[in-house]
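Re: your question from the hallway

Yes, I did run it. Sequences:
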Amino acid sequence: MSTKPVVAVAMSGGVDSSVAAALLVERGFTVIGMMLNLWSEQDSERENRCCTPDSIAMARRVASIISIPFYVLDARQVFFESVVKPFIDDYAQNRTPNPCITCNRFIRWGFLLNHALVAGADYLATGHYARIINHPEGIYHLSRGVDSTKDQSYVLHVLTQNQLRHALFPLGEYTKPVVRELAHNYNLPVAERPDSQDLCFIGASGNYRQFLTKYAPQTLNPGLIVDRMGRILGHHPGLASFTIGQRKGLNLTSPTPLYVYEKDTINNTLIVGTREQSGSNRLFAENVNWISGQVPISPFPASIKIRYKAPDVPGVVNVVEQDKIHIEFKNLVRDITPGQSAVIYNGDICLGGGIIS
Amino acid sequence: MLKGKQIYLDYAASTPVDPRVMQSMLPYFSETFGNPSSYHKYGQLAESALENARQTIAQCMHCLSDEIIFTSCGTESDNLALRGAAFLARQERQANHILISPVEHPAVSRTAQQLAKVYGFELEYLPVDQYGQIHVEHVKARIRQDTALVSVVYANNEIGTISPIAEIGALCRSYGAIFHTDAVQAAGYLPVDVDTLHTDLVSIGAHKFYGPKGIGALYIRKGLNLLPAQTGGGQEYGFRAGTQNVPYIVGMAEALHLAQSEVKERISTIMPLRDHLIGSILEGIPDVQLTGHPEARLPNHASFVFKGVDGNALLMMLDVEGFACSSGSACKTGNPEPSEVLTRLGISREWALGSLRVTLGIYTTPAEIEQFLTILPKVVSNIRKLR
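Structure:
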């Protein structure tokens, strides 16, 4: 009988999850490889970009090299219901969602974690660049990964204590170049493979506008583009095609570059402005998750990320209701986008976050 | 893997090579290694081993030596049988109609579909009852003067159901249609007497009866001039060119011989265990159905559907617990569309997605079955809780 902790690893056939699995094997855990078959748009490429037969074959190959069992689970229906449908609905309501966050919340740390636990695993590990810091008081803190350029704590801010208790992020202490080197040292045939894709379920083009044309044509209702004074500058093919702060694709002739400033959903109008005119010093967010499970005493100063790849900006967080917050920024912040998440940090510790409303 | 010893309950997928079979093969790798077609003594010794093996298999199948040809596997035998027979019948009597059961192994059904799609044959499927059995009167209602070929699986791999091959064979003969049966699953347990069965073509593969993988055979009734699938040096009576795989052929002959001479003991130890397994599962687990025929089924075969269970998750959990089973056919992709065989039996999607095949073998012990019966209800109930 084995007494070593059992770890299920979410594998994708990519370099990160493969190295994560290899590291766990080396550390002496009993490791099981698992992969999810996710829903993807039909007809375009027919396969989800992150779980193509090719990726499955690669993950299987990695599993055999590091001598662990490997299983593929079907999660297409639950993925469609909990990730793809809300993605479409968000666009229909002129929000710009981040489906990776929804996927982490419901699929990876819901469906997959539950299956792993029932299969007898003590932990679920992923190849995310993030760290878990075990507080003496029994609270699991989520921290940024050591590699600040790769840090993925942003997409993990929805995790709860129950999930973090069973989570392992073996790559949190490493930088990406070191991970590639480890892949090489472990003789994993993945060192040069590209990273997993965001919007994995959208066909080969990766073009979400084409996807919306097909699945949510109602979101693509043509309308006017106006400036902040209300002067008509042109026409847009549908508000869903644009994100706050976007410059490309406006097809406007203007002496100074214009950016999407606001989406007026009532009048189906796109409001644009110059870079100087854009930005806001506050935001509201809802569906807030507090990772510690405890609502902090507010107001308190914090660093805030308003997008996955956005830099931290300083601000003051006010808890309005248990799961609703108001953030005031010191300076004007551009590109605050409804549907994206505002994630709150105290130094490297991720406190949680919510969806910008 | 995780809990120590692994228990193998997937003998329908493949079987371990019997040590006696392995012994019989060993001299033919580097001692008696000659090419059976060679002129010299090396060649003659290899040819002698090859022909002895052919004779052994012919005796097991009650046919003449030169009615047995060796192939690389059961699938190749099925391919050669269907394609060869279809083209022969078209050439000789302008027959273009192909009749197959809807529960054939893909080696048969995909080949028949290709014959229809690419070569213009007319493909028709026989009806099947709720147990996956084919009835002779249904064949009779559909067979025609221009039926080139009828193919019905002897025993199905997913559900273990045995069809009345002898009756169907006799009917086909009276119509002059070529009759093929895929006996890959059946050969280890059922008599494959080609005369009693009235078959013209019979496919077998060694690794289902404790022989090695990569070797199969096709019985071709004398006088049936199949179009060869592989042309070349004229080996295997011109039906299948290529230097014969002598050690594997010797192994297959030994394995089939052992299967036949020991079949009574094998069945008498395996079948009671299998029956106990089926009985306990049907009694002990809610919302479960046996798939396939309750009696007319392979003696080592048990197959079920569980309502509201993801079959892939079930296999995973069982494997983690140390039990190697199958959902019915080899599917590793995590893409469990309900099995076509199960849906054709009228089993709804909600049930068919939760399929489990448990196949026993000569190394299965009562203790293993008891352990399996302790674990399975827990695993099924845990998976149901996940939904």
